[in-house]
Amino acid sequence: MINGTVNTNREPIIQITIQDADGQEQERDAVVDTGFNGWLTLPHEVIASLGLHWQRLGTALLADGTTVLFDVFEATVLWDGHPLTIPVDEADSDPLVGMSLMYGYELTVQSVDGGIVMLRKM
């Protein structure tokens, strides 16, 4: 089970553990984003500090109808206690956990400040 909390901006936050290029673990807060169908986004400076390896270019269709190009990297995260190698999209935003990473889990969010966020394997 993965637990987090709702912050004062009303965002569901969980902590995600990411391995850097040397296998050292770093923890980051990430927003749970059910509108994002990818795996994980990280900003450029976090990707650079982790030394993640570039894989390819990606494209996304945004809610306003525009299409954007972005770099896709590869990272190993600890997900529910297990290492998982996933694609990471570079984005100029707070880290986001998307539906592909949460696939197979039930998401519960208590939508109040300090509310519980819970991801439970189905």
Helices, strands, pairings?
Blueprint: E1 2-6, E2 12-19, E3 25-32, E4 40-42, H1 44-50, E5 53-61, E6 67-79, E7 82-90, E8 96-97, H2 99-102, E9 105-109, E10 116-121
Parallel strand pairs: 3-8, 4-7
Antiparallel strand pairs: 1-2, 1-10, 2-3, 2-6, 4-8, 5-6, 6-7, 9-10
Describe the structure.
There is one protein chain. The protein is mostly beta strands. It has a single domain, classed as Acid Proteases (Cathepsin D, subunit A, domain 1), CATH 2.40.70.10. It contains 2 helices and 10 strands, in the order E-E-E-E-H-E-E-E-E-H-E-E. Strands 2-3-8-4-7-6 form a 6-stranded mixed beta barrel. The mean pLDDT is 96.
Question: Reading side by side through the largest sheet, how are the strands ordered?
Answer: 2-3-8-4-7-6
The helical percent reads under 10%
Write down the domain tally: 1
Q: What's the oligomerization state?
A: single chain
The rough form would be described as globular
Work out the radius of gyration. Answer: 14 Å
Would you count the extended β strands for me? Answer: 10
Estimate what percentage of residues fall within beta strands: over 45%
State the CATH superfamily name. Answer: Acid Proteases
